[in-house]
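# nightly structure sweep
# worker-07 picked up a monomer target from the shared queue
# config: single-sequence mode, recycle default, output format = structure tokens
# input follows
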Amino acid sequence: MTRRVEKSQCLIVLLTFFLFAPASYGQARLPRIPLYVKDKTIHVEVARTEEEQARGLMGRRSLGKDEGMLFVYERDVYHGFWMKDTLIPLSIAFIDQSGRILAILDMEPLTLDIHMPPRAFRYALEMNKGWFKTHRIQVGDFVRFSK
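# output follows
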């Protein structure tokens, strides 16, 4: 009898934790890789699946100074991004298959505005708002996966 009570108490504690824990506890950390833009090294989480891409940086309260999220697509795609449930201001760079930046747009938190690139892209890189401007990174520059 004592053993059952311990198991049920443990189950109640676990259920309570998962029901009331912040959403970020339920988010699995995505793989992180370094990227290189001009003379800057950044570290990004990689979102490859539709689920990871749909979640993006939603619910995050902060993003490190030189950290971001890279959305990777298997083929060129053409769609926009919005900031629903995203709490931090971001800048997004749309990048072609060769790594060339096609467009950089600023995005405000908790908005439903759709941010569209000028044409199809292979990657999208989200960083803290103003990061690209601060580091003089602009359309035509290249994002590299190795030095």
